[in-house]
Amino acid sequence: MMPLSEKEKLDTLTRLGIELNTINDLDILLEKVLTKARQFVNADAGSIYIRDINRLNFTYTQNDTLQKRLPKGTKLVYSLFSIPIDEKSLAGYVATTGEPLNIEDVYTIEPTRPYGFSQSFDEKTGYKTQSALTIPLKNASGHVLGILQIINAQDAEDHVVSFSRDDEKMMFHFASIAAVALERAQMTRQIILCMIRMAELRDPKETGAHVNRVAGYSLELYEGWAALRNVSKKEIEKTRDILRMAAMLHDVGKVAISDIILKKPDRLATDEFELMKQHTILGARLFVDRQSDFDTAAQEVALNHHERWDGNGYPGHVIVETGFPLEGFEKANGSARGKAGEEIPLFGRIVSLADVYDALSSRRTYKEAWDEEEVLVAIKEGAGTQFDPELVDILLSRMDIIRSVKARYIDSE
Q1: What percent of the chain has pLDDT over 90?
Q2: What span, in angstroms and rounded, lies between the C-alpha atoms of 228 and 216?
Q3: Does domain 203-408 have CATH number 1.10.3210.10?
Q4: pTM for this one?
């Protein structure tokens, strides 16, 4: 990263609000905020904590030095944890006081200070933290939504230096702009989760943790697919934002399915299963008045996530508004022919694999979670029949990050 000039910083601040407000998904936004913040002051690393009542959840981290040690195309995998909001840690102190901390060297913090620096991360990774700038993310009413912490400012020769007072002032403005986008994205996430909870009332399998895992797996599959085709970074970023939200709503059509069917503990009868299949069409109808790329993606996912690569899925080639087969795609029994191969839209193929992977990996009222080895055997066996074989290969190549997504969103007991 090259340091920005003062004019470039002012220009960045001017554009920042517009750029961040084009992002709707909370997770994607947090990644973007951290990336932009580090670029803004040429920092080697950084983290974001999100407030959860009286604790801070460590949510995202980036570290160029550690990333360079990894093989090309792999991602930094990190542990998740939370810390109390008190004055003992740097982030906790800033969340408590609402004031930024700019520390030249975290290893020389005076013992008289109420806060201190935990060396455990450095000891575990071999990284050397030095300068740290910790900024509160406050909304308009002054409530701290989270903490932005950036580490190891660098000069033009990549030597670690302290954050200047100008950096501190500019980053405070940066944080105020980012907090507006953060609050909006949190509201969007809550609206989506409310829709998920409506489905959860009908089908206990549809939990917030489940849909977040499916969304996270879907992003990894898409990024792998896009990398193989040299899709531009700009297009990938735009698509990730849309896909993540659409994937979370893949089963939203279940709100219209009878409890008798959704909560039946035994295997569904043939006629019951035919009614269950309708959740794909019913979910797609929620987005029939498509006014944005998100509506298009959400409809595509809801309609197609039960199609199979071999053409034996459902609902097949149907008219969303009526559920009737498209002309020329009727089977002898009057139902629609299933979509096969690349007839299935990409987002449908992606979420299909992500959904099944999570279903097999997770505990349900009627089954225990399968061991990872069992899950991967089943997924491999489904390559070329149930699943797009290319996407299966991508999943298998990204298991480290898939496991980290699973660890991030754990089902509540």
Answers
A1: 74
A2: 19
A3: yes
A4: 0.86
